[in-house]
Amino acid sequence: MAENDLERRLSGLLGDELTGDGRGRLLASLFREVGDSGQGGGNPLQGLVNELNEGGLAAKVSSWVAPGGNEPVSGPELAQALPYQVLDRVARQSDIAPEQAADLLAEALPQVVDGLTPEGEVPQGLL
Questions:
Q1: Cβ atoms of residues 96 and 127 within 8 Å
Q2: Is the distance from CB of 86 to CB of 33 less than 8 angstroms?
Q3: What is the extent of the structural domain holding 42?
Q4: Which residue numbers in the chain have pLDDT < 50?
Q5: Confidence at residue 87, expressed as pLDDT on a 0 to 100 scale
Q6: How much is the pTM?
Q7: Is 124 within a domain?
Q8: Count of CB atoms situated within 10 Å of the CB of 42
Q9: Do the Cβ atoms of 86 and 105 come closer than 8 Å?
């Protein structure tokens, strides 16, 4: 999926395509970073899930993928679960501090992962 298409899709899941608050761009950057890491075998969503599971957020991530309620995650929890280099690059691409990026991503990720996993599983295809 093209870069702008991914950003539009993620923004649409958040309902912010009209507000332009940049969360879609931030999320697209995160998905590209974890997708490039090889963690998901070419599937950026699987890469993100794997990264967060390894970072200690498996129970929370499982709640986002499974049907039902989504457990919240805090910015500091997310920052601890992601490799610092990934968060730093994502933040720099949006011209914000890594802590601010972690807070914005923590606010959006449960809803986005839930929206991308309507069947309660990470889809095999690319985003």
A1: no
A2: yes
A3: 3-116
A4: 1-2, 18-19
A5: 95
A6: 0.84
A7: no
A8: 12
A9: no
